[in-house]
Amino acid sequence: MAGARSAQTLMARMRKTSLRVRTALRKSAVDYFRGDASDWVAFAGLFLAVPTITCGTLMLPVWFSPSALVLPIVAGGLLLRPASLLALYAASATALIVEALVLGPYTEGPARVTPGTVLVVAACGFFGLVIAQFRSRVGVPWRRGGTMLFDLRERIRVQSKLPALPPGWHREMALRPAGGQSFSGDFVVAARTGGGRTLEVVLTDVSGKGMDAGSRALLLSGAFGGLLGSLPPHDFLPAANGYLLRQDWDEGFATSVHLVLDLETGDYELLSAGHLPALQLCAGTGRWHEKSGEGPLLGVYDGATFEPAKGNLRPGDVLMLFTDGLVETADRDISEGIDRLTGEADRYVSAGWEGAAWHLIEKVAKDVNDDRALLLIRRST
């Protein structure tokens, strides 16, 4: 019995030790991601580079220059914490003083320490400190910061992909952020529901544009993607409105349009939250008709209701959803923009609609400083 208790005690101690080790490793990993982990390896290497450059400048002036001190300074701005960076700057300033005293003011050639050299080194140090303080504030390490932004951008793109449709249906979507940026305040979430019979698409325009709205668009696209298909279609916009209100953002409103399309009959409903009307091309008449539900902006007040607009897509018909960046500018109102959009879209009736979404943005709103999104759905048979 005593041996069994001793074994149990030993196993308990081993489990506690293992737990402490895992906790320490986890804390170390979190600290590293936040930029709080030790940077002594990088600091030691850069700190030793300063006297190496100084010795090279004094002994081999043809190959080394005092301005070479900007190299460890720039690298330090990308790799070190602000406190370590200040120590590196102190070493660099000391090196410049030593070089100026040893070389003297009468030294000829690139090894001479001039006021211009001091200004260049000081300017690089200032920008390096700004970068280090920014990394420390946002908690993004230099080596992973670019990867994180790339992952966020790709996540938005993946969430905006439209599901495959059965034969007889064509869909495509084009998204163009403002100013050529990678992040947009416009996004699309879509899903096949009802056993694949129904296509649900939500096109949303978050307040703001580009990078300013990108973080909110990422958060909302994830939340809307989780709600879509999990709730009855008429409950989606009220739930999205409540979610947006709970965020309590200073600029927390958005417009949205929710399309619910029966892929067997072509019947659809459009529920709108302050969004622009959709446009339907009727193949029989060749005319475009506006389709719009009724409802307020998302995130304005609680208890909002949304009344749907109903329609049907017959063979040859096209339904077009878009955001205001495509049709509204400072010198053009929305009605003129819609007329221009439909006029350009008429060119694709006979040529086919393959690639039309991207080309329409190019033709109608190529240089507009606003986010633009366009969704096309066509029934061919």
Automatic annotation (TrEMBL):
SMART domains: PP2C_SIG. The chain crosses the membrane at residues 40-64, 85-107, 113-134. It holds the Pfam family SpoIIE. Keywords: Hydrolase, Membrane, Transmembrane, Transmembrane helix. The keyword Membrane applies. Residues 170-379 form the PPM-type phosphatase domain. InterPro entries: Bact_Sigma-Reg, PPM-type-like_dom_sf, PPM-type_phosphatase-like_dom. This is Serine/threonine-protein phosphatase. The keyword Transmembrane helix applies.
